Amino acid sequence: MKLIRILPILLAAILILTSCGKTYSKNSNVDTEENGITIVTSFYPMYIFTKNITKDVNGVKVINMAEPKTGCLHDYQMTPSDMKKVEQADIMVINGAGLESFIEKIIKERPQLKIIEASKGLELLNGESSHESGDIEEDEHEEDSEQKDHEHSVNAHVWVSITGAIAEVKNIGEQLAAADPDNAEKYRKNTEEYVKKLEAQREKMLNALKGIENRNIVTFHEAFPYFAKEFDLNVIEIIETEEGSSPSAGELAGKIKKIKESNVKALFTDPQNVTNIVQTVSKETGIKVYELDPVVTGPEEPDLDAYIKAMDKNLDVLLEALK
Ligand SMILES: [Zn+2]
């Protein structure tokens, strides 16, 4: 449970408050004395980052809200068990950039929960309505206009590039240090250590990919623009801009035509993609499909280097596909 003070009256008040699902403190800092703090993360990559930053900090418990098989949180609906996890927490770490559309509900129900937004202040790429492929007519599929501005104006998949991951890790580290000043030094030290590892991984990948000449690729989900930018890959086409959204037959035919004309080296899907459009495009174009990992799913308890290991695998895949 939360903090317990000596004064019985205060204690009673706290018990009443916590049983109503509210927090006890109006301070912007989280009270960590004696009972520690619980941090809930929205989904898998935020969990890995936060675990690294808090790894040896006593009294800090990190729990992950969405089941690790959930994947990206586009249009995610919270379950009662998710809400229970949020209710236990003092701090919540989210990606932001519109990915967690349920966050407004959480803020409403738990106004005192400290929210840390990993993408805060970062420069974001445009969302699906404006990828630079030039096929303007094809992008005019109907969308709820009220949703459009809010959710699709930026691409939220910042963590999929290592540079984006580094920026998010630094952001989480700094905001955690501010929320919990007692442990600030440890958070900063862990952040710095983890960032060094991530930088080394980025360096390794950039070096390994230096000699690649044809960098024209096609992807099946909007997860990879940051990754592609980092490694100078030229995304000719994105087949399904959103998870679960399929292009119409006409759109698909247009995309296939464009791929055939564009000297595309490889098609990249992700482990979460279960549609058979991938096979159709591969068959129609004669281009092989490979799997890149946007690091949104993994085991219940990933090891601290899970993100780096996933990127290592992605490097092997790129080398195999683009050689
Ligand atoms: Zn996604």
Give a verbal description of the structure.
The chain has 323 residues and is of the alpha/beta class. The chain folds into two domains: 149 residues, Rossmann fold, CATH 3.40.50.1980; 83 residues, Nitrogenase molybdenum iron protein domain (Rossmann fold). The protein is built from eleven helices and eight strands. The radius of gyration is 22 Å and the shape is globular. 38% of the residues are buried. The N terminus is likely disordered. It binds zinc ion. The site of zinc ion (ZN) has 6 residues, from loops.
Helix-strand blueprint:
Elements: H1 8-19, E1 37-41, H2 44-53, E2 60-64, H3 80-88, E3 91-94, H4 103-109, E4 114-117, H5 145-152, H6 162-179, H7 184-208, E5 216-219, H8 225-230, E6 234-238, H9 249-261, E7 266-269, H10 277-285, E8 289-291, H11 306-322
Parallel strand pairs: 1-2, 1-3, 3-4, 5-6, 5-7, 7-8
Helix pairs in contact: 6-7, 7-11
The structure holds zinc ion (ZN).
Residues 72, 74, 157, 221, 223, 243 line the site of zinc ion.
